[in-house]
## 1
Amino acid sequence: ALRDGMPPWAEPSFDRTADDEVVLQSELLDRIRFLPGDMLTCDLPSAPYDLVLCRNLAIYLSDSAQRRLVDRLAGVMTEDALLLVGHADAVMSLLDRFERVDPAAFAFRTRARRGAIVPIVPDARKLRTGTSPVRRPPDAPSATALTSPSFRTRPARAEPEPAGRSDRKSIAETIETNEPRAVEAAARAVLQSKPDDIPAMLALVEQRLAQDPDEAERLCRRIVYLDARQERALMVLADLADRRGRIEEANRFRRRAMRAHLENWNEPEGEGGASAKDTGLTT
């Protein structure tokens, strides 16, 4: 769908429908061939490509696998090719090889001509297979570094105590020690077994924000992908976008954070729902 008019960079590949939606041009649709395989190792017929769509794939990969994927994509694209990604895939690793065609778009072009196709690496780590993880709300509200008393996190649903509560309690107790390395280690330990644990990711964001803002951004994008009403993650993304001069993007994140704040505030706490204080993660 389109937020407004068709942007100039999309006109060569897309047509606008009567319902204000966009579709690939019929000439491109006729040329599509489906081929399952490992993007890091498989042969790609007919490369290089003028248009590449990579939606919500990289977010499930490790940082090193993300960078190998980005290098491979850059290597199979023509000089003027367009790369379209999902909002969760606009990770900082893209900025090494690509630049946005528009501040408001999840569309990128290569920064410079990349030459030949990136060779296949025999021992490249395989992409994860199987069905994509199902989006789900966190099983406990997140609240690291929410210093304003007017902010309320999204209440947890009235369910039996989740199995990971003891892990988050451990993180909370570590936060009380004011030992950043211990907090980071505790958060990473939880994420090893529960990679979608939002409180653990938020705790890690607070520790990595100054030392590694790229990692903090990737974590925050993952958080808001899992739960779009995570105010703290949205505000961190806004701040990081500001630092990098992406003012329009920063303003969008702030508007999303405000909407999330209002939704969280207006949602009644159900019986058995936990507040941010109950999780022990508030600092």
## 2
Amino acid sequence: MAFLFNKFLEAVKVLAKSPTFARDPRQLQFEADINRLFLYTSYNRLGRKVEEADAEEIIEMASKASVADQQKLVQENIHSQIENFCTAMDEILLPDMKRKNEPGEALGQSDTAS
């Protein structure tokens, strides 16, 4: 048993020295975080109408896209979600702003105000 454990440790040391596996841990964490954000934001952007096939397509896209592409898509997804949120908040907080105010009329005044 100890022999197998020692062989395993030797294999780990060899792999750790390999340029493929000996990458900066911070860079690896950054790439993992971007990948996770890509999955979350892409899934969230689809909203309530998401289906299992859509989720599988997002996972496939994540496996094929580079980190730079994923980062760009995360930024686009977040921007879109913030725009949607702001639009919804405008409709809730400023329902009268849909009407055009008369020139000279102060903001927030309604037609019925005396």
## 3
Amino acid sequence: MNKVYKVVWNASIGAWVATSELAKSKTKTKSKVLNLSAAVLVGAVTFSSNALAGTVLGNGSSTPNKCNNSGSVIVGGGNTQSCANSDFAIAVGNDVQSTGRGSIAIGSGSRAESRQPNLDGKGAIAIGNDAIAYGDNSVAIGGQASTTEDFTVSFGHKKGDPKYYQGKEQGAWEDDRFLRVTNIAEGVKDNDAVNVSQLKSAVAEAKTHYVSINDNGTKGSNYENDGAKGRNSIAVGVNTTSNGIEAVAVGSNAKGVGTGAIAVGSASETVGSGDVSIGRNASTKGATGSASRYSNQSIAIGDQTKAIGDQSIAIGADVIARGNSSVAIGGDDVDKIARDTELSQKYTEITGGKLQAGKYPTTEANHGSTAVGVQAVGTGAFASAFGMTSKATGDASSAFGVMSNAAGKGASAFGAVAQATGDGASAIRSQILRLSSTTRSITPKLNLTPKLTTLRLSWKTKV
């Protein structure tokens, strides 16, 4: 095999080339070929003598450069701006910086270095015009690709009018349009990359079905699943919080504050330990809103219902169990009945009064009292009121029946519209037996002597 070479002029490309000794020059003379051969030989000797110190190549020249270290290479038209300023670094292109040990920067304006002044960005690779790889073993591939952390990879950055900010956050571009990496096969092993199709399938499988929360497009608190503050607590909903230990809050703006408290419903709130509030605006918080006034182990169930006292129970709409150990079951709305002609007439026949919509207060019970029925009121201590619009306002009083009233202390009213207004008074009224007034006198020895003032018996016979 012929191993002898010579340099001849190639007219088609306009340059001197190395070729076999059998090849002929197109137009140049033999003397010129010999002179060029000598020049190339001198250049080769010069290149060899500086191999360990680094090499700069460009425009057919080979010269050492102060910006290169042992084993480094700079290629780029003799441009003094390019720099391979570390061992075994490579810089190719105009205005290129490859300052880390073993780093590579290829492309005009590319950088393979560290973003920290005292670090070198060893092993960094930047390929592409204005590609930037800051950080050890980081890789940036593509025009204007940028990566700023160690061991990271970035692919491309598409810009119409690129503006790169060298400020507080290096790598911050004017907008967020990036190139895509396409035709990626589905990953199989744990360390494989995945494609969008696999991600969509994973997201679909990870979703918990039959659970939906709609924030109407506006992010509120708990969006980041951080509403459960208490230990082992649960918070589900927009702006929902559970601060108590093992508390549960479910619903928009629901709050579970007390230990083991449960709040379910929009804006429901449980403040005391072991409280339960179920319903819109249901609450166990004091009526004054004071942090020092709250109940424990109370239950409020229903829209706008309040269980304020300790171990109080309020069930219904707009019901208030105000006192400790109180029970209020009912509501405040008789509008539907009042508008019903037949029912309204029956109420008038029984009570002698007229049922008026919105006239009566809500069902309410005081300390140790019980009120059961729509608009039933047991405001006296230890009082009992059973029946729609019944009232037991005296302490230890009892009212049983629609529109019954026990106003005196220890008074008792039994039957529809029965009235016991004096202390210790009793009133019984019914269709069969009507006891309009019974009084009791109390002696200093507390002997009770009943005195019957009026007794009337009546009955009706239907044919």
